[in-house]
Write the structure tokens for this entry.
Amino acid sequence: MFVATKRRSLKVAAILSAMLVGCSSSSQSADSRGDASTTIPDGGADSAIVPTAIALGGCGVNYTATVTLGGSQPFTFVVDTGSSITGVGGSSCASCVDGGVAPLYAPGPDATDTHKPTSESFANGTGWSGEIFSDSVSVGSAPPVNVDLVDIGSQNGFFPALDSFCGASISGIIGLGPSDLLYAGTSSYLDQLAQAGSPDIFSFQLCPSSGNLWLGGFDPKFAPSWTPMISGDRFYAVSMSSIQVAGQDLGLAASSFGDAFVDTGGDALWLPQATFDAVVAKIGSDANFTKLFGSATAFFKSNYDACVPLTQSSADLDAMLPPLTLTFAGGVTVQAPATSAYLMYFEGCGYAPALFTRGTNNQGLPPIEMGAPILHNKLIVIDRANQRMGFAPAPCK
């Protein structure tokens, strides 16, 4: 989940704490690629279960899906792998109306009021409070399951933050993160879906202005390479061993990187201080970068308001500027061009940094956060059942 200050989104860790917060693969065997012969549903001809495909809306950072509550009330919800709670603006929420939230949720006759209040206040002054209801939840065409969700009765800046990038009318958020991120009294949509018989796996492809989500598997035209997820981590995290800039190592030990978590609700790539400094130095040694943006050290210390207007297109910049290559346990590599790895475009403003550091204080998060931009043009598979993550190139049309 995310909270915005001006145009910059500050990640709030998993809705749970008051803290601000493409892709290449080595050759893989049929088993490691998740073909139809494995236990991972991929939608192939021999699969017993075909994943449910759901179209996502988006603008490069926030991604949304149609979520139906109570069997008849459709809403536009942000889809977030960095949290696990389902929350919606309720009909009694006057501050939601003031915040532009529409439509609002009205519990139907089949909804159950648990009479359990819950609330959250964030470090930047935003927050919400509400009551937990049990109601049916369906994402896209997936079958409905009962979820203990939050009927938000009051909010302060929470909903304007959700739609701060895209300007969409967003009524709520559905968390697809691990169940460790839940509040007491709430339940996880994915947990409920698995209990109803769906394979405990999902995947997504994020594009600059759209995306796709698959529940229960992944699209069979992709062949993911697998790396284990970190056991016991509250987030979907994997072990990163190196980062290269334009194919050149940073000269850092593997211990300088650490665990990296995937966050579709995140706005940037966040790195530990030493790693961030090394990446910025390498990017800053590129003549094309300094010609366009000046000092890399100064540019990456700026925020989204300090964007640089350019005549070059994203494709031009990607051809001119150094890409990043991220390497994970098992040798799995993820490649990202400049305009998804460390640059973000804002209409009417220009290019701003999409690479940041939290310094030496990770605020309870894994050291590295892979937000939505660096996930563009990739398939990411979260295999919860087997505790592994898959990556594959997935160019957007």
